[in-house]
């Protein structure tokens, strides 16, 4: 669904250049629910905006659903934005109107008319588990319910790809879990591909794959040994819970040139943190990294 190769985004502000993405690689399978995690300023929102066609990369390759977003004409990019992607933001006030009901809010962006418009809105509210609250004004709904309305709107144009920027940023843990459950259900039932951006490591434990970005580059990938869905099933059947360390495997990302980012804590352990080179050898079928020999 998504192929990013060596993606670069440079923002020009007055005379300054900010390199927000510096050669980022990312691949996402159709129907996958995955998360992108990283500190504030690491380039998460920039990446999401590129994926959603809201802004264009400066260089590299970006294919979404077989479409080349870098080479695409402006007109086609507008069409892509409108027909292929749905967006969910942390601050849903951005696309919701407080004095309208949940249903009226969902109806607004729907291009159908009359009865068909109403039916589609109700269908969408049902998909997000909110049909019982459809006649409530938005300001009578909880934060989590408002977020569901925002998700219903994001689904209005039948997107294949749903992009969520810190979707659980302003709700409590319980609500965050419910929103994730909803995402999982949407993936399963509608075959949607969902990319969630977050800085919350707790959320990362609940998806099957998490890609970490640091300084505008993918640095590591954390993969579940067992899918979260399977784990929930096992828990229900009383099968013993595995330890946190065992439920996930973390991989360092290897780029096309063979570069890899070694966690700072590992370098510290071998006393190579302040060094700009290390000794790399192959021993017994393993690659061994050692601090330089002191002279
Ligand atoms: N429109 C913009 N103009 C200039 N710089 C920007 C713009 N958007 C983001 N940046 C810069 O790009 C970097 C990455 O930002 P962002 O993608 O928002 O990170 P995150 O979402 O991970 O917090 C930051 O240094 C930020 O200041
Ligand atoms: Mg952001």
Automatic annotation (TrEMBL):
Keyword field contains DNA-binding: no
Pfam family, one: ABC_tran
InterPro entries the record matches: AAA+_ATPase, ABC_transporter-like_ATP-bd, ABC_transporter-like_CS, ABC_transpr_LolD-like, MacB-like_ATP-bd, P-loop_NTPase, SpoVT-AbrB_sf
Claim: Metal-binding is one of the keywords in the record: no
Domain ABC transporter: 2-240
Keyword vocabulary terms for this entry: ATP-binding, Lipoprotein, Nucleotide-binding, Transport
Protein name, as recorded: ABC-type lipoprotein export system ATPase subunit
């Amino acid at each position: 669904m998504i192929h990013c190769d060596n993606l670069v985004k440079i923002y020009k502000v007055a005379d300054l250049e900010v390199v927000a993405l510096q050669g980022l690689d990312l691949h996402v399978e159709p129907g996958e629910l995955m998360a992108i995690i990283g500190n504030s300023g690491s380039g998460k929102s920039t990446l999401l905006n590129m994926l959603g066609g809201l802004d264009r990369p400066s260089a590299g390759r970006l294919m979404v659903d077989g479409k080349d977003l870098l080479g695409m004409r402006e007109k086609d990019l507008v069409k892509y934005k409108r027909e292929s992607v749905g967006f969910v933001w942390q601050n849903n006030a951005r696309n919701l109107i407080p004095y309208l009901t949940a249903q009226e809010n969902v109806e607004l962006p729907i291009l159908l008319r009359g009865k068909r418009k109403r039916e589609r809105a109700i269908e969408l509210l049902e998909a997000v588990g909110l049909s019982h609250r459809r006649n409530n004004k938005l300001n009578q709904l909880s934060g989590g319910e408002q977020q569901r309305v925002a998700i219903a709107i994001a689904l209005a144009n039948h997107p294949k790809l749903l992009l969520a920027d810190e979707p659980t940023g302003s709700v409590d843990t319980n609500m965050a879990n419910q929103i994730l459950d909803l995402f999982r259900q949407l993936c399963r039932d509608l075959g949607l591909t969902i990319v969630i951006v977050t800085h919350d490591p707790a959320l990362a434990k609940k998806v099957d794959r998490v890609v970490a970005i640091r300084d505008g580059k993918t640095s590591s990938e954390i993969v579940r040994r067992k899918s979260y869905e399977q784990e929930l099933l096992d828990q229900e059947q009383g099968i013993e819970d595995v330890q946190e360390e065992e439920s996930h495997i973390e991989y360092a990302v290897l780029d096309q040139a063979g570069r890899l980012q070694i966690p700072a804590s590992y370098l510290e352990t071998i006393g190579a943190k302040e060094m700009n080179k290390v000794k790399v050898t192959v021993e017994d079928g393993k690659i061994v990294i050692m601090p330089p020999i002191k002279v």
